[in-house]
User: Fold these one by one.
Assistant:
Number 1:
Amino acid sequence: MPEISRFFGIVIAIFYDDHNPPHFHARYGGDKAAISINELTLIEGQLPPRVMGLVVEWASTHKEELLKDWDKARKNQPLLAIEPLI
């Protein structure tokens, strides 16, 4: 899994050759979710409400970087790490 960030036990990844719309994946314990980068909404899966709030807070701060990594993934280029939520 191409991990781009990790904070508070939450792992954030963007997969190569993934389907549109631009999104990232978040994993926390046994829960997994795909989250739209542009709308910051849940596409599939689930996360506990507190975790979803942290993920959306982080993603809203790093939206531009997420979109750049999405573009890199589509071109099979190495992804850049994104600062965690602190």
Number 2:
Amino acid sequence: MGALTSFLLSNFPALLMAVGAALGAFSLLRLFLRTRPKESEEWRDPPPLIFKLFKPIIRLFSGEVRNLMSDKSHANTQTRLSAGGVNYAIMAEEFLTLKIVCAIFAGLLSFILYKANEANGGLGTEVSAFLVLLPIVGFVYPDIWLRDKIGYRRRRVAKEFPFLLDLLVLSMRAGLNYSTSLGQAISSLPNGPVKDEFGKLLREIRAGKIRRDALLDLAARMNINSVHNFVAAINQAEETGGEIVDVLTVQAEQRRSERFNEAEAMANKAPVKMLLPMMLFLFPIVFMLVGFIMMVKLAESNMLPEALLRLLVS
């Protein structure tokens, strides 16, 4: 392991410097030989901080990265961005470019850290191995960030979606049509993914888009099972001539039941998740306290061996 780490570290800096020099030269060449028209950014949502840090270089190479991506890979990445609610802030090719830039930046950082500590006698094998793996960590970090974003968004949808369905049912039973009821329900929701996505749905319907197609696009953007079930039920009710109010009532009951079952499942998992921290941190302290009290009692009753008593006193 030590020989392999030394070999990688001895060749890795030169490779990183060569890649960095090539990218820098290519960037300057493009800036001088090619002028790109300034694109309008009005349609974009505010990008995350990690994207802002590397925005110039990402925009510079995103076009070339798009040519390297297959249509399937581009569609899958776009679906994940839509599920995370950042598809209007980052495009698929920009997300892959961000991963590559983060890997290069992490590689340069590992090289700097290695050279800074090399004069002090070098680093241990474990630290050196971590520095070698740091570019991989940089490459997968955007995926970890996007996965957390998707998980947070889905938890918000599970919390707010039943409330939206209840408002829809109340508005439609009061005599309003579907579009007007949807507008009233959206205006009563707190800011969040449900309000944003269903607001887009309402704008598309009012702009003349067929409601079935708008609902299918909504399900594709959010990529959540509860929304897929809602869209399928609404479209089926329209095709068969069923009452949308009855469908919405059933959907609201199902979403509340799913949320309750999920909360119950999480509550049942809590004791199991707490077992390991308790064994690592709480139980040793309890055993130490009990053992100390037992030692004191044994010493007071002269039942403790003399050698062990001298060891404890010293």
Number 3:
Amino acid sequence: MGGQKMAIQVLLVDDHALLRQGVRSILETSDDLTVVGEAGNGKQAVDLYAELHPDLVLMDIRMPVMGGLEAIRQLRALDPHVKILILTVSEEDDDLFEAIRAGANGYLLKNVDPDELISSIRKVARGEAVIPGLLAARIMAELHKESAAGEMVEPLTGRELEVLGYLSTGASNREIAKRLFISEHTVRNHIQNILGKLHLTNRVQAAAYAIRQGIRPPESARPPEK
């Protein structure tokens, strides 16, 4: 066991057993991922999370008994640090917006490539945001619509814009700190300031905002693709 990296523990939540079986088969091709439980609806997911405390919940939105959106809210209430990646067929704007607003860390459609699914699970487990660029504009359009009558957005400092640019690439706090020659603690402080000034609630929304506004780091400074 000495020195061996712990596998990322995943809880699969979908009302279709065949799909869960297929996703499990994909994840088990990677030795750093392990499925520790399966649930057929949101209520089972909340109960199993309380019992198993997995590293990540991979969950659909449309399910019987309790849907994914309500499950996200209950999981967040249970554990504010829970990591949730949505995997669904739904491209409905309302679903996209509600999932991110409720606290999902990422959103993928079920036609995603298996390698991208595995990569996205790793990113979310590390605390990064996963949001396809095509979906970012739609999510941010909803966020802007909702806050149109709200407070004005406070301008970001130059350093905050740099950090926000790296968030748009899916960079981790460690990667951002290394690129900007600052500490991870300072990066976390900058991200909190960014969220407060832009009236956003999480890193995923910040990444979507950066993509929507075209805020990116210099080409030569972008972290390598994972």
Number 4:
Amino acid sequence: MPNSKTIAVAMSGGVDSSAVAALLCEQGHNVVGLTLQLWNQRRLAGHEGMPESVQGRCCSIDDVYDARRVAETLGIPYYVVNQEKRFEDDVVRPFVSEYLSGRTPIPCSLCNNHLKFDQLLITARQIGADLLATGHYARNQLDERTGRWVLKRPADRAKDQTYFLFGLTQEQLSRTRFPLGEMRKPEVREEARRAGLRLFEKPDSQEICFIPGGDYKKFLDAYLAEQGEEFPDTAGELVTTTGEVVGTHGGIHNFTVGQRKGLGVATGSPLYVLEIRGDQHQVVVGGGDELFSRTLRAKAVNWIAIDDLRAPMRVQAKIRHRHEAADAVLEKIGNNEVLAMFDQPQRAITPGQAVVFYDGDVVVGGGWIT
């Protein structure tokens, strides 16, 4: 990147974004630090079984303090942008609604797609910044042949975050930079150490910011109680694919596709959750071999490498963050809806999760599994 640009850096208080700010300062840019305040970490602490501690979660108040200290060390302006209400409206409430309907949403993708990049780019414009830089492990560049900005996997494949960025628009990609795209994590920590940042050994955040310990059930209990809303009664039947009732359950929110434990049914062979029928309050169970499927449908597809799908296309489709992308053929079946047909059956395709389509290292696009 040429010198003399004003660049806003999305500072989370972690090593990655802090190293980005240090790198850009070294390169001679005018750097401004921005942190989004998204969730009051102490809001539900200790409520209805929720833990008192908020350690280890992304976007915590401690992370805000860390980001401010990094900005002070680097001598750059720093601002905290409060977006708690929008985060609750656009991320938390949809998460609660989806989960209570029997789907398994991804809050981090919702946050990136509908809030973080949108709001940070708005704020960057307001402070006169030409670009926004983040600590995501990804690469983007302009494809001169097509005139489109493309999103690509990073050099450090173990840290690849493109799965969570599939919703970025062409305008957002054109104004965003990922300086860590060619780096590996040890190099990033070394950059932070060399810049005199005391957090260079800080562990990565492992938890969703508003769900400590990953216990969705406890969060739902606490959140609905705080809102004065009754927990909906979604108790119903455990059924097989043939419709045989083999048991009952206390609520569809207790289950996810692929789950084996906690079904409360004793049979001669292991049973797994195959499907959740939210409208009927039914949880469909069956053998492990029945978890595999060769097709999925996705809606609200965002195309990146192409402007639209005009003919069947071979891709590698990733149905979970840790899933090894599998060969498939995409066909358009509606407005921003596609059918993916896998060469080999895939395990536990889960409604509510994202599916991201790749052509090698390039992100073709992605959408939400229905």
